[in-house]
Amino acid sequence: MSDRLSPSLPSTVMVSPSNLLPSQPEIPSSKYYTLRYALAAALAPGESRIILPAHSDDSDALFRGCRALGAELRWEDEQERVLLIRGTGRPYQPAPVTINVGNAGAVARLLIGLGALLPEVTIVTDHPQSLGKRPNRELLEALITLGVQCEGSGLEGCLPITLRGSAIHGGRVTVSGARSSQFLSALLFLAPLLPDGLEIDVVDGLKSQPLVRTTIEVLQEAGIQIEYDTSLLYFRIAAGQHYQPREFQIPGDYPSAAALLAAYAASTDPTSQLTLSRLRPGDEVGEYLFATFQRMGADIQRTGDTIVLRGGRRLHGFEIDGDPITDCIPVVVAAACFAEGESRIYNVESLHYKESDRINDLCAELRKAGCTLEPGQDTIIIHGRPEGIEGGVTVDGHNDHRLLMALAIAGLRSQRGLTLTGAEHIAKSYPHFFEELRRCGGNIRSLTTKEARPS
Ligand SMILES: O=C(O)C1=C[C@@H](OP(=O)(O)O)[C@@H](O)[C@H](O)C1
Ligand SMILES: C=C(OP(=O)(O)O)C(=O)O
Q1: Residues 6 or more apart in contact with residue 2 via CB below 8 angstroms
Q2: Which atom, in ligand 2's list, is nearest to the CA of 105?
Q3: Whose CA is nearest to atom 6 of ligand 1?
Q4: N or C: which end of the chain has fewer CB within 10 A?
């Protein structure tokens, strides 16, 4: 199976004021579940089927990682809708191996955890200004406790990282959940394969808890028994367990859906209607996101796995704990920029540690566009402008797909449009986002290099 190269995407796009049409786009598949199901399959002896996996730069990085762990991957069909993964029961790669994880943070962290079972692995990134700046210290400290030799960059253990796991053992570790839940998820995937198993104590609190519950759900689905307390601060996983080959069906991706939902929620046109399917009811992130749109006054309904949102409603200010839907916050902030009154999003300190600084960089670019926001250490306060913003400027995506989504929403509600630079980074999770928004009626234009050159 060859690496699917991202279609050559424009680096600069112009988003101009436009109303959105009644549309029923097919949303991408879940990044969270693609990651977890593919790794579980790569660790199981035998062949698993993964139906409708995500297609993105992050999934390309994930599939490279699965192969580096010793799994064989191939598409069952020409449309690349069913992925077959033949695992080996545990990571097997006798020779030193290097894995380029692109800009994929969760892929990187989970591969750091599993790579600790190999004699030698080096994890690298070709995004030194983004993933290369994200800390891994908390995970490396836990692995060192387990006897792994770790060489990371600097005090924060940034990529590139080399691990040597020949002397790895089980036991009991402590890991901080203050900056990311991914370090815990990485240890949970590693735990069943350790001699003596693993006990984990989580300290300093735990961010993004719904995604830890997703990790637990998938591990149990793959046949792993986990004891844990419901506070998610203590875990015990016995040794001698084996991942089981399964057929996994990937649901739709809620953070991708959030971007389109936010664009339609901010639309002033009551004929703008968005219908999205494959959105699994009962999903913790999805239910919290749905409630957030209700709280801002959007006209949003759910029937089964289908959500319908109609534009034209005047949104109003709201207050939410942003942590449970951490990846949706940039686009929720963008919608709040066009609500009546003030909105406050709190408990979002971990946004500083993503592909960009999703508090300060996001607020800086939206302010350039004409929005009024106050960035804080763990809050974002938005003073809405229901009349829209002026725009007419160039804003930057800061290597961050979710900033690009938020800035595109602002561009739709600007008088003079917005020029977005770094637009190619949309490929991380949603390569076809701008095309999709254009199909929904958005006035989106790719600028040639000449056009993009500042006058
Ligand atoms: O476990 C996961 O798959 C993820 C966890 C979250 O990160 P944090 O736990 O660092 O918030 C989220 O931002 C990321 O997109 C994916
Ligand atoms: C932060 C994100 O992903 P990751 O941590 O996997 O890079 C994201 O998708 O918004």
Answers
A1: none
A2: 7
A3: 208
A4: C
Options 57, 283, 323, 327, the catalytic residue = 327
CATH class of 12-28+252-452: alpha beta
Q: Which helix (H) or strand (E) holds 261?
A: helix 254-265
Question: In whole angstroms, how far apart are CA 253 and each of 48, 103, 260, 429?
Answer: 21, 18, 11, 10
12-28+252-452 against 31-236: fold identical:
yes
Q: What is the pLDDT of residues 182-227, one digit of tens each?
A: 999 999 999 999 999 999 999 999 999 999 999 999 999 999 999 9
Nearest CA residue ID for atom 8, ligand 1 = 180
Determine whether the shortest distance from the Cβ of 425 to ligand 2 is under 6 A.
no
Contact between 9 and 427 (Cβ < 8 Å): yes
What value of ipTM does the predicted structure carry? Answer: 0.99
Residue 103 Cα: closest atom of ligand 2: 7
Q: Which ligand is nearest to the CA of 135?
A: 1
* Pairing assessment for the beta strands 227-228 and 234-237 based on DSSP bridges: antiparallel
Q: Answer whether 0.95 is exceeded by the pTM.
A: yes
Selecting from 3.10.20.30, 3.40.30.10, 3.30.1050.10, 3.65.10.10, what CATH number does the domain 31-236 have?
3.65.10.10
Q: Considering every ligand atom, which ligand is closest to the CA of 208? A: 1
The residue ranges of every structural domain in the chain are 12-28+252-452, 31-236
Ranges of beta strands (E only) in 109-252 are: 121-124, 149-153, 158-164, 171-177, 198-206, 227-228, 234-237, 247-249
Q: Is 60 one of the annotated active-site residues of the chain?
A: no
